[in-house]
Amino acid sequence: MLTIGTILYVSLLLINAVAVLSEDRFLARIGWTSAQPQNANAGFHQSYDQSGYGYAQQDVGVKVRMINLISAVRTLMRIPLIGLNLVVIVYELILGG
């Protein structure tokens, strides 16, 4: 039966799975690293948006967005995940969920 608790468990497990992905061991093998190749002349070829909002927005693909999402989850959710996992563990131990 699909309940809110089941949806929360599944979402917590998926976020945990993304958070523990190793960029060096796993993501680099499939080409999903966030490291950008260094260009010696990158500072001289800056493109600016004509509307006055800084750099021109390039059309980024789904792969780049997924890499950025994985990096953001690994950075921002590390401490909250520890607390959420502790709450779920205590809940399971006390109530036997």
Chain-wise SSE layout:
Layout: H1 4-19, H2 23-27, H3 62-76, H4 78-95
What report would you give on this structure?
With 97 residues, the protein is mainly alpha-helical. It contains 4 helices and no strands.
Backbone CA Rg? 20 Å
Order of helices and strands: HHHH
Q: How much of the polypeptide forms β-strand, as a percent range?
A: under 5%
* Gap from first CA to last CA: 14 Å
Largest sheet: none
Overall 3D form: elongated
Mean pLDDT: 79
Please report the number of helical segments.
4
Instruction: Estimate percent helicity.
Output: 55-70%
Q: What structural class do the secondary elements suggest?
A: mainly alpha
Low-pLDDT segments: none
Number of strands: 0
Can you describe this structure in just a few lines?
Helix content is 56%, strand content 0%. By secondary structure, the chain is an all-alpha fold.
Highlighted features:
single chain; 97 residues; mainly alpha; 56% helix; 0% strand; elongated
